[in-house]
Amino acid sequence: METLFGDQLEQSVASSGSFADIILPVPIPKMFTYKIPRSLKEEIGIGYRVIVQFGKKKILTGIVGKVHQKPPTAYDAKPILDVLESHASVNPVQIRFWAWMAQYYCCHIGEVMNAALPSGLKLSSESKIQLNPTFDPDTCAYPLDEREEVLLKALQKKEEMSFEDCESVLGIKSIHGIIKSLVIKEAVVVFEQVKEKYSPKVENRIRLTSNFVEDKSSLEKLFHEISTKPKQEEILLKYLQEVPVYRQAGLNKNGLEKKVLTDAGMSTSSLKTLIKNGVLEEFKIIVSRFEDEAGSDSPIVLTHKQLEAQVKIKEAFEKKHTVLLHGITGSGKTELYITLIQEALQGGSQVLMLLPEIALTTHMVSRLRQVFGSSMGVYHSKYSDNERVEVWNGLLSGKFSFVVGVRSSIFLPFDSLGLLIVDEEHESSYKQYDPAPRFHARDAAIMLAWLHQAKTLLGSATPSFESFYNARTDKYGYASLDKRYGEAQLPEFHLADMLIDKKKNLLKLDFTRLMREKIQEALVNQEQVLIFQNRRGYAPYVSCEDCGWIPECEHCDVSLTYHQFGEEMRCHYCGFREKVPHVCPGCGSSKISAVGVGTERIEESLSLLFPEARIARMDLDTTRSKYGYQRLLDDFGAGNVDILVGTQMITKGLDFDRVTVVGVMDADRILYFPDFRAGERAFQQITQVAGRAGRRGKKGHVVIQSRRPEQAIFHQIISGDYRNFYLQEMGERQRFFYPPFVKMIKVSTRHKDYKTAERAARHLHNLMAEIQVKKILLGPEKGLIGKIKNQYIFESVVKLDRSSHAQAHFKQELQQQLEALQAEKDFRSVRFIVDVDPY
Ligand code: ADP
Ligand code: ZN
Ligand code: ZN
């Protein structure tokens, strides 16, 4: 691959070169060289979106990555077909960032581009048909059938038609056969039309015709004659009289929504008459999809502790690029962020704040909105393409200099980033699993900041071990906040032993006595309760009581989760669904029962235990719609819900006054997960969800249910002893060679044929073994889940020396081997997936 680092970017003006290397949104290992036609020479530079032909048929939007004089040696360069814009959409820093990402995460720069550009900025091409000008139906050698005649008639009127148009003309789906036949008969030609996907939001407005604007006297004459005017004009004139002159001018620029006049008492038919009489006219205007909101400039008064932390952060930034802010839940990290953001903006820098997906729809955004108003852009994954493009363009135009967004917002076109904040930096949702690039947004953010010579602030109540390690080894600066804001205290913890309660017959529907008592108390005091269970559905699986049969997915190597809603079993990996059988296919028994506990079942149990309580559930199944999550939160915030049951969705960022009890149903389930980060994650999740309790004056209670409550981790969570927990776990990681002491890379091999998958995995494994770097190589083994969506999975794990040289060398060799392997006939259909820093 062409490297894009360093001085190669100097040449950013096209006039000095005749060739351009284009980044294309396809998984190919390098950029392709195209000729810059003379006519476009002045108009092309790095970062411009261009249209090129790729292969025989495909038309693609690409980004100019480099401009130079060297013709390619292996092929004839095709010309660039067109330039899409007069300014670069993507700046040189972004392209360097993409190149870094492709290198670090072992993927192709085209894949990074694909992830980076909102699809509204990519082009789609649409197949259309046109009449063949030389076609003469009378001399045609083949007869046309009825449908073909209908299409041709329609085409004579319209000149060109998309395949969809054809479908609607004929009223049938799938018209490919008919079109093919028409092409063979030389009646039509098919061509590709490239079209932009982004469509601005257009509104119909009305305004005074130019008569009335340019000629003030005619307006005054009208005002004068007001009493003699028909009713409709009278309303309009009265309205205009009330509007000051400077606003009249504005009105005429942006126009009025019809609604303004109908609200003032004018009927739609009168409006029409005024338009017909040349008083008003209709026109179209492009409007923003985001509402205008003013910010506030009432200053934030930091507490003494917060000020201390702020000073510490600023001092650390003098010497370090990255600072970790370790502040307990409710200590006011947000307030600190706000003051730092304000300062950076005043200094003329851009700011990006990353939030985990789910936190982005909550208080955090409305809190920030209060301060920054609509000068803050929000980049959410549930946004439409058009909305994303508007945030993108808003940065280019300078409308936004501060954006808060999910992990993909690191790809936005910042050109003078000064500060990056990663809130809840320990969150695993910052890692992208699929597709490539499989990046971690926190780590990528630190790189992005470095490219901009900007600062990064990582914030968390429970930092990731990686970040804490970096702070302890002085790579990052460190500041802490160890007191909650105001009167709020940390909640009181209670450990509830499920086994003892079970023995004493006190465990009811999975709730210990202690848990039930605390919930009851909260309900009596009209306070709210959060119940955390990290498993959705009704039960993890169903099983035959007589023979132990457990239904599994037909396509994956996992058991099916039972969902009471719809009385069905679902695969959480591929979406496969099936009804629960009435009798066991193994032994014919009809005793088939649900085993284990999911959120649905807890919701049901709660309604049995607390019939008077209002209960709601928050998990993937209840929040699929765009506003589903927000609606649930609003309901909870308004006090319409007493108990909210949920998966890890409820652990993040919720800041409700009236939550005093938090229950963790099954702490063991979080702890016993076959992953070296299980302990770290359990500590984080339980601490985070506990942090939702007692955030205002009232003391909170946290009940943790476990079958082994004597484990050290619980006592470390309870005493907030992050440091000792960290030291203990790190000892193990060092002994058994886990990150951050080594760099981990996971390579998986997937194929629908078991043998082929295994053979390819072995082959690659042997090749990796030969790479000369200090490493430990494990596998290849059947994946933790051996089959997903009918693809068998084998995995090798590489534990690499931490030195950047070793990493770069290994990755480069690996890339080359993968390319060679993929070219072999036997392995062409095998998928190799490289995951750097897997989670
Ligand atoms: P964290 O993000 O650390 O969990 P928050 O920033 O959400 O904590 O702060 C907890 C609560 O305390 C919030 O309601 C916040 O508005 C309030 N708060 C924190 N610091 C201040 C301050 N300096 N002035 C006013 N309110 C504050
Ligand atoms: Zn059975
Ligand atoms: Zn499945």
TrEMBL record:
Helicase C-terminal domain segment(s): 579-733
Obligatory cofactor(s): Zn(2+)
One annotated GO molecular function: DNA binding
Chain residues that bind Zn(2+) 1: C544, C547, C584, C587
Residues holding Zn(2+) 2: C553, C556, C571, C574
GO biological process: DNA recombination; DNA replication initiation; DNA replication, synthesis of primer; double-strand break repair
Keyword Transit peptide among UniProt keywords: no
Any one GO cellular component localisation term in the record: primosome complex
Top enzyme category: isomerase
Self-association state and partner proteins as the record states: Component of the replication restart primosome.
The name this protein goes by in its record: Replication restart protein PriA
